[in-house]
Amino acid sequence: MEIAVIGTGYVGLVTGVCFALLGHRIICIDRDVDKIDELAAGRITIYEPGLEEELQRQQEERRLFFTTSMTAVSCADIVILAVGTPQKADGESDLTDLEAAVRSMAIYLSGHTYIMTKSTVPVGTNEQIEKWIKATTNEAFDVVSVPEFMREGSALSDTLKPERVIIGARNAHASEAIAALHRPLTEQVVETDYRTAEMIKYASNAFLATKISFINEMANICDKVGADVVTVAQGMGMDRRIGSSFLEAGIGYGGSCFPKDTHALLQIAGDVDYDFKLLKAVIEVNKDQRRHIRKVLLQELESLSGKFIAVWGASFKPNTDDVRHSPVLDIVRHLLKEGASVRMSDPAAELNFRRSLDHPLISWHTDPLEAAQGADAVCLLTDWPQFLSIDLHKLKAVMTTPILFDGRNAIKQEQLVDTGIRYVGIGRPGMRGIK
Ligand SMILES: NC(=O)c1ccc[n+]([C@@H]2O[C@H](COP(=O)([O-])OP(=O)(O)OC[C@H]3O[C@@H](n4cnc5c(N)ncnc54)[C@H](O)[C@@H]3O)[C@@H](O)[C@H]2O)c1
Ligand SMILES: O=c1ccn([C@@H]2O[C@H](COP(=O)(O)OP(=O)(O)O[C@H]3O[C@H](CO)[C@@H](O)[C@H](O)[C@H]3O)[C@@H](O)[C@H]2O)c(=O)[nH]1
């Protein structure tokens, strides 16, 4: 098949590479000239393990191409829409890029084409896409909603082995054609209508966000009653009805999806006069969780003014350089506001973080131990494996006050023994003050 992918962010790029791997001929289109130049030269512009090597392999096999020109759409059997749908100030999804992409590609449609929507879009958008296309061309087409569920950091394997593929279509013929395209990846296919497919995406992300806010509230109670949230989550997760994933307490969820999609779902509910009380609380708890660390540091150090705080991690989770809605951004802003100097280290996200937040009181260090030099506290905020293997005796030796705030509950009890470090996790009061 000949497939054109519009938008070469995480979703477009990974989808393009994966369908090339399955033997299709892929043309990736983006309006960003610099990005396309880099990709055409075999270099990816994001940090995603394994992706650059696979992209280069597919380019060598002459199955993967990059262009800024929408004319490439004219040869395509399938056009995949993977442009961004960011959050507007009121929480609603901004469909400006999507509309521009659809209208500009529709001019070049030639012969029957399937238009596959992978961008996360509010309910009713796939019907709107049909209208935008019809306003531009008389060529035959079918719009199919195929929401994407990949995670950053494991995007290739998630896309090649998806847990399920959701297909929202207007007719059985279009649904079957797109189901056949995905059959080499999985048999777990749900065929449904547009609106249900659109809702499945939002419901999935909102539910995962709910699990995280739930366990974060449990952690806060564990701190007060003297229970250990990591073991609570382990015990809960053994019940298959609950499941063990997304029960890691921490500084709250971030990233380009959960914050945006939970707000968009609130808006979708609001549009039909439904007050989604539970989801509002999930979002509120997540906001509070980012403030938790400030409280802890103030308790431990009394004042943060003039203090040196080392921050390990900038990205919203490990194995990505993405800082979109990273809790670390908010936390560092709080620390700066209190008058602290912040010594940061992250294996991949420095550049992106600095683009969002640069300040004379922030310094960057390749070596996390160097960042901790002379620090009054170290805050582990992203659980990159590089941070977890640091010898805590060495850490204690370089710090002014040996306080370790573990915002990911990633440090194990054995690592702390005899280090003299004052450890503060999230909902792990038993691990405090181990000498
Ligand atoms: N990032 C993820 O992990 C993930 C996972 C599942 C779903 N999604 C959803 O997929 C969509 C894309 O997300 P992303 O993170 O890959 O986006 P992104 O912001 O990283 O990339 C979007 C790309 O689209 C390009 N673009 C925008 N308008 C264009 C136009 N008119 N013509 C051509 N190119 C255009 C931009 O230049 C950019 O390169 C969003 O709706 C997102 O919610 C993202
Ligand atoms: O138990 C957990 C699990 C995750 N997180 C945090 O939640 C956020 C999101 O993590 P994750 O879901 O792994 O990352 P994303 O790459 O944002 O992926 C989510 O968002 C994508 C975009 O919609 C979906 O495709 C994926 O299925 C969905 O997992 C991160 O800040 C994590 O640190 C926790 O705090 N506790």
UniProtKB/TrEMBL annotation:
Keywords: NAD, Oxidoreductase
Protein origin, superkingdom: Bacteria
SUPFAM superfamilies, alphabetized: 6-phosphogluconate dehydrogenase C-terminal domain-like, NAD(P)-binding Rossmann-fold domains, UDP-glucose/GDP-mannose dehydrogenase C-terminal domain
Pathway(s) of this molecule: Nucleotide-sugar biosynthesis; UDP-alpha-D-glucuronate biosynthesis; UDP-alpha-D-glucuronate from UDP-alpha-D-glucose: step 1/1
Molecular function as annotated in GO: NAD binding; UDP-glucose 6-dehydrogenase activity
GO annotation, biological process: polysaccharide biosynthetic process; UDP-glucuronate biosynthetic process
Substrates-to-products reaction catalysed: UDP-alpha-D-glucose + 2 NAD(+) + H2O = UDP-alpha-D-glucuronate + 2 NADH + 3 H(+)
Family label: Belongs to the UDP-glucose/GDP-mannose dehydrogenase family.
EC number: 1.1.1.22
Annotated source species: Paenibacillus baekrokdamisoli
Protein name, per record: UDP-glucose 6-dehydrogenase
InterPro entries the UniProt entry points to: 6-PGluconate_DH-like_C_sf, NAD(P)-bd_dom_sf, UDP-Glc/GDP-Man, UDP-Glc/GDP-Man_DH_C, UDP-Glc/GDP-Man_DH_C_sf, UDP-Glc/GDP-Man_DH_dimer, UDP-Glc/GDP-Man_DH_N, UDPglc_DH_bac
